[in-house]
From TrEMBL, chain A:
Name of the protein described by the UniProt record: L-arabinose ABC transporter membrane protein
Secretion signal, residue range per the UniProt entry: none
GO cellular component: plasma membrane
Membrane-spanning ranges: 14-39, 82-106, 113-134, 146-167, 188-211, 248-267
Bilayer topology: Multi-pass membrane protein
Any Pfam family matching the protein: BPD_transp_1
GO biological process: transmembrane transport
CDD domains assigned: TM_PBP2
Automatic annotation (TrEMBL), chain B:
Matches recorded under SUPFAM superfamilies: MetI-like
The protein's name: L-arabinose ABC transporter membrane protein
PROSITE patterns linked to this entry: ABC_TM1
InterPro entries in the cross-refs: MetI-like (IPR000515), MetI-like_sf (IPR035906), UgpAE/MalFG_permease (IPR050809)
The entry's keywords: Cell membrane, Membrane, Transmembrane, Transmembrane helix, Transport
Location(s), subcellular: Cell membrane
Annotated Pfam families: BPD_transp_1
Segments forming domain ABC transmembrane type-1: 86-302
Upper classification of the organism: Bacteria, Bacillati, Bacillota, Bacilli, Bacillales
Species of provenance: Paenibacillus prosopidis
GO biological process: transmembrane transport
Ranges that cross the membrane: 29-51, 92-113, 125-145, 165-187, 227-247, 281-301
Record's GO cellular component terms: plasma membrane
Amino acid sequence: MDTTVKTKWTLNQVLLLALFTVFAVFSLFPIVTLTIASFKPAQELMRFGLNLKIDPDLFSLKNYTYLFSGESLYLTWYKNSIVITAIYTALCLFISSMIGYGLAVYKFPLRNLTFTLVLITMMVPLEIIMLPLYKLSISLQLIDSIWGVILPFIAAPLPIFFFRQYAGGLPKDFLDAARVDGCTEFGIFVRIMMPLMAPAFSSMAILQALFCWNNFLWPLIVLRTNEQLTIPIGLSTLLTPYGNNFDMLISGAVLAIVPILIVFLFFQKYFIEGMTAGGVKG
Amino acid sequence: MTDSALETAANTEAKRKAKRSGILYSQKFAPYYFVFPFLVSFAVFFAYPVLSAINMSFQEVLPGQVKYIGLDNYKDLWNATFLKAILNSTKYTIYTIVILIPVPLVLAVFLHSKRMIAKNFFRSTLFIPALTSVVVAGTVFRLAFGELEGSLMNSFVMWLGFEKQRWLGNGALAMSTLVILAAWRWIGINLLYFMAGLQNIPKELYESAEIDGASTWNKFSRITIPLLRPITIYVFTISIYGGYSMFTESYMLWNGNRSPNDIGLTIVGYLYRNGLEQNNLGLGSAVGFALLLITFVITIGQLKLFGMFRKEE
């Protein structure tokens, strides 16, 4: 009797394991093939298509050395992506946490209205305001500058929402103690509440940095000259109606994933908290 | 307490009050400077663009001159290309929802069960595609779904005994490529949402159901599904928005939005083509509002269907 029950569970486990293995392979397969292809010359790809064939004779680092040579702009794009992601993430977190905190901690007449406005910006897709925003960026001379990519989105609704939730759950006793000690309201936020919100900062930092690193549509519209592009936009310019530069595209795509993958492996917990922040609320 | 002690206390209190009377100490003013950046950003980068989009959608915007043309832009939307774009976006949204709600939900239930091993490994592995940008994902998929005999998908279908296909050249196959790409990138994300939802279901419910002799199927259909309703509605809603505003995927698969016979053209693709490439900002703005209207109506309909507006008992 006991043994049959035991085997039954083991069988279920095996089936589950098989099912998840299929999905895991499906998830990793494209990335693995892309990595393999990045070591082959592009003519090979053009002739035989993207495949898993590993032929040591064809393997070389040529595609990668080209990226790092002076002939390609890839390193410039990489640098632009790092700069934009760093500035955007820092500003967005600082400003959004301030706003979320203000909404959570103080009762004031405009509170509900402001929060409703936050929710409205969350619900209207960017695509609708894209054209006027583009016109506005031209008048504000933000076109082709990193500020054009960054500024319109630093007061981001999702982080505001998340920080509001988080700050609302923090104990308020500290606040009055700090006030008695003569701390300014802003000082309370910077010196006491920000450190208390550290976990929320980690989750949102990762989420916003990922969003910014991979962001496509808006930077595609704002950035113009080749030297200003970020990695995704730069890579997309390699595909043209007159021919595609797959040598650079594939190795460039592989290198674009590497930093995110490293961060993900080390900070998975924060990724998961940040991702589910929008969905699970009381 | 002696009188003098009381006096000193009162003194320090008065001093503190004096020190704290400035605007920086006022709890009445504080919230306004905290939310001020949002109000500025909202006014400049949201409210103004929305109003100006409404305005532009009634205009013919030509370089140097702007003319009001009433509803003409909206009337112009009634054309075969735009209808095709709406149809493509709608199909894409439906197919992605049909796959990306049940599959991750069931996987989440399995992954949540006590008997599953290597939970974290699978959760992380399935999430990895979500880390890639659409540009990277699009690059892989356009190559894997290439028309060459040796490309991944063709070797796969030929191994199954079918003919090689032109995946990106035929309407139905192009749509499947887009849907497979979406499934690849989103299963891990929706899985996380459903797992977070499962964590909120009290274990006692299952325990008491087991005492009452409920089968696994009963527990799934009577406890898990109903209690996952809020998260399912959330996933449904973001899928509608995501589906209808899809653009980059199609931009990457067909060299910047140029699919044969517009088989991959989406609503936003149409907006991009007319508004930015052909600089017809008026028509582009009208497309934007058509998109807003479609997503809004469908979302409200969906929320009504799920009984979101019913009062919770």
